[in-house]
Amino acid sequence: MRGAGKSAEEGLKAVYADEMIPEVPVVRRAVRSLLRRKPALLGVVALVLVFGSAIFSPWLAPYSPYEQHYAESRKPPMTYFPKSGRLALLGTDHLGRDLLSRIIYAARISLIVAFATVGISGLIGLSIGITSGYCGGWVDSLCMRLVDIALAFPFILLALAVVAALKPSLEIVILVMSLRTWVIYARVVRGATLSLKETDFVQAAIAQGSRDVHLVIRHILPNVIAPAIVIATLYVGRMIIIESSLSFLGLGVPPSTPTWGAIVGDGRTYINTAWWISFFPGLAIMITVLGGNLLGDWLRDFLDPRMRE
Known about the structure:
Blueprint: H1 2-15, H2 26-36, H3 38-55, H4 57-60, E1 79-81, E2 86-88, H5 99-135, H6 137-152, H7 155-165, H8 170-197, H9 200-207, H10 212-248, H11 260-267, H12 276-303
Antiparallel strand pairs: 1-2
């Protein structure tokens, strides 16, 4: 029987040998596809620069982001101060702090908030979405009602309530943003799970007596992780904008911690006389969000089997 099975398998391979396409390694195919997509490549370059500045901020920042020089406040870009020997490439803020150093250090906090929020909300949404779509029935109804309740709360009102009850901190900002964004993952993953339940390979696994846990881990999860990754890539930029908005309104991290949104908020009073205080951190936000969106658009097409060449 083993010999017959082996010969049958070899016969099938011989019949379909002309129709089989050699499998290209995923990394090589991704690099080749990325090099053909110039906007996505530009997004990768932008994100690498932002990540590099965040990781190596202690070495890249020319000065301390907290050191104050009141006599040198609100000076325009490319100003040299003979007394202190400083060259403010992007100018100084209302307290005389070097703006370039604060923007470089703020990249670390903004990226930590964005990726922590995306990770936590993604895990919550992925778990609830798979559970809802696979179990169905009253479990599905309960999970979708939780989604409706979460969507019913205005985000700013939720942030105000949480910040009023708890002291503003980095952890609270991540918690507030995670409580609101997991629903996006849950709805997308639930829809993908419902579709996968009706496919032939899942029905065959059920017929063979596969346990639910094994079925979810082996067949459902690998097929719904791709849209979740695309959402995460696109939502990194959105999380940075939301964190900047909360910091701008005074609901984010403590004022002593430099973030892009807080720096923009510091400069709103001096927008007519010291435009650079708000302009350059806003430019950093725009570049980071644009890079994430360009990379997310490419990743969505790359992970879609229908778009493969």
